[in-house]
Amino acid sequence: MARLIYTNRKTIAFNDLHEVYETIGMLTAGRYSTIKIEKNQESGAWGEEGRIQIYSDLDKFLDPIEARFSAGVGNILVRVNSNAFVEDLIINHGFTIGPVPPTGTVADVIPPTYSHGLSLVPASYRSDFIRGFNK
């Protein structure tokens, strides 16, 4: 089950599980963002970094995510760094890690299908997931 607090170097603190599952629904839809795992340790940095890269519609994201916005690069408006949250998406919410290209250091985190993602949501939060998915 999802948590309210995801901590590593920066904390994402949701107010309730309704916000968590709405956010998971949005990320499952992938309309405004992609999720990546950057293998930064291969270029001398401290380690892998889970990132939500947001390309449009910043106002659609709930305050706990917006509070973690940091500068984007290129066509990425902002990003949210959170190994703990990205790890939870993979372990508990049906997201999977795609392959790292042979010459690359970034893996895509692939959202589940709508029906699979929804099936992993407790019944009392399904309307939140659906609302997020349809934003």
- The assembly state of the depicted protein chains is single chain
The ordered string of helix (H) and strand (E) elements is: EEHEEHEEHEEHH
Q: Ranges with pLDDT <50 over ≥5 residues?
A: none
By secondary-structure content and strand pairing, the structural class works out as: alpha+beta
Treating each run of at least 4 consecutive H or I residues as one helix, how many helices? Answer: 5
* pLDDT averaged residue by residue: 90
Shape assignment:
globular
Query: What percent strand?
Result: 15-25%
What is the rounded distance between the termini? 23 Å
Provide the helix percentage.
Answer: 25-40%
Explain this structure:
The chain has 135 residues and is of the alpha+beta class. The chain has one domain (5-133). It is 30% helix and 23% strand. The chain contains 5 helices and 8 strands. It has helices at 17-29, 63-66, 83-92, 114-119, 126-133, and strands spanning 5-7, 11-13, 33-38, 49-54, 70-71, 78-81, 96-97, 106-110. It has a 6-stranded antiparallel β-sheet, covered by helices on one side. A two-stranded antiparallel sheet has the order 1-2. Helix 1 runs parallel beside helix 5. The mean pLDDT is 90.
